[in-house]
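Suppose a classmate hands you a notebook page containing two proteins, each written out with its sequence and a corresponding row of structure tokens. How would you begin to make sense of it? This section walks through that situation. The first entry is reproduced here exactly as it would appear on such a page.
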Amino acid sequence: MIKNNSTVRVSCHCGSIQLDVFLANGLEEIIRCNCSICSRGKGFAMVCVPSEALKIIEGNESITEYIFNTATSPHNFCIVCGIHTHHQSRSRPDKICINVACIDEVNVKDYNNVIDFDGINHPRDL
């Protein structure tokens, strides 16, 4: 289990992208979204952190952005393996959302605090 005030390594499948993320509240709030991109991403779950909590350690050249719908929430993927590592939160623009499955040694099934988010009916779409 991830403890509060921990720095964790986040990486894509092939390891080209390496991020360090400071989790002040550990994995206190894990969000599972049902929007079109998250639901097609095999049940994507995320943890959102302040932008300054993320540091790119390696692989900036391997990061590509995918921008869709309202063009306000760029999603970042590895150009080598295609894994979605993180994105700008549309609900909370000061936050970056990290793919929990990309945190080394974490299995989201070990956590019972997953919050379902109705991204299909996003409040910014109304």
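The notebook's second entry, a different protein, reads as follows.
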Amino acid sequence: MKYPTISRRGFLAATASAGLLWTPVIAGCGALPVQRARSSKARNVIFLVADGMNTGTWSIADYYMQHLGQGQSEWVKLYQQQAVTRSLMETCSADSRVTDSAAAASAWSTGIRINNGAINIGIDGTVLAPIHEKVQRSGRSTGLVTTTRVTHATPAAFAANVVSRGAEDTIASQYLDREVDVLLGGGEKHFSAATRADHADLKLAYQNAGYQLLESRDQLLNSVEGASSRLLGLFWPSHLPYTIDRDANPDIASQVPTLQEMMRRALSTLERNRDGFLLQVEGGRVDHGGHANDVGAIVHDQIAFDECIAVARAYCQENPDTLVIVTTDHGCGGCQLNGVGAGYKNTDATFFPGIDAIGASYEHLQSALPSMEQEAYAALVEQRLQIAIDEKRYQQLQVERAKGGYAVANLIKKWHGSFARTGVNWTSGNHTGEYVELCAWGPGSDSVEPWLPNTDLHDVMEQALGLS
């Protein structure tokens, strides 16, 4: 069986069909200067999160972009041009030096550190006001865009309150009750009557409340602008597929928009509010690639996130009253490129061809196993990871499949041996506790200190928007 070759998307392919209200040329955006803020007050905030990004992840994505001829990443260009305020951020939660996404994003949202696993619930049980509430009271709109389920921890912390981050059905209901204006990502199962525990049809409830429901990439790009000032976009039952799998599979690509396409549509909707907006955009599957120790997945999702920095730069050219914050909530997996060979001279010759050769995530190959015949499945794995699946290995996969979870993906990962193939290795499949990168530009960015705890970003946003 023949499978489609892997498409390598050009950097920020044009999406004029999305009907944006602003249409600057984005390609080569690194040449656009970042305007220095003339005021400390902002009308808008764009908060960009590469969830689970170690500096090693950022580095290998930048190296790989150069290898593809795309030049350096937008994030690196910002630093090269000294165009932004740069900082290191401490990411601790209330009960651990190593945070989870719920506690980290809640710190941004409320200015208070809470325990891992909770969303905007204080350590004494106090229900804390998420930043959405304050932004909404100011007359501004709010939007949450992610490659994970839209009810997942990072976006949820900007608007919801739950004792446990796993209460995603409740989070979906809270978004409606609290009137979050734009929700774009995965997680359709938490809005569908067929899959919710209470069998409530939240998709219909959102539509009855005036939200435009979008359920495919075509609808996102080509639906009539202006039909509604509120959007609910649900493009996959759970998390959106990894970028590497989306790009290699036309059926997925026709269904699932890219992160920057969702961001553009969110901006064109939110900017109708003349009072301004807060938009959070999360490259959430970067974190999942770290948990899975999946180098192909993490590189391509980090690059997809970087495209959103270019969108933000272009948007700020026409809207300089916008504060942009770019950061991560924590590291994950300890991803690093290691030296290969005597004197490390084989590093480049290992890393670049090694990444080039990867055509699927371990997760995608696990999901494909139940629906494919043995011969076809073996051909798929051979093409995408250069692993031979003989009869013995195929039977091993069936044993692992019966165990559930990520057992199949973990076995494929073991056989793949990405360290030997790419030089990239990992410290664990867990979150890590190092200080993380942060940069900002626009009104209020001068208040970002060279080193800060994650709770300080709440004050930065609050002061810039005049919420206090």
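A careful reader of the second entry would note: The first helix runs from residue 55 to 67.
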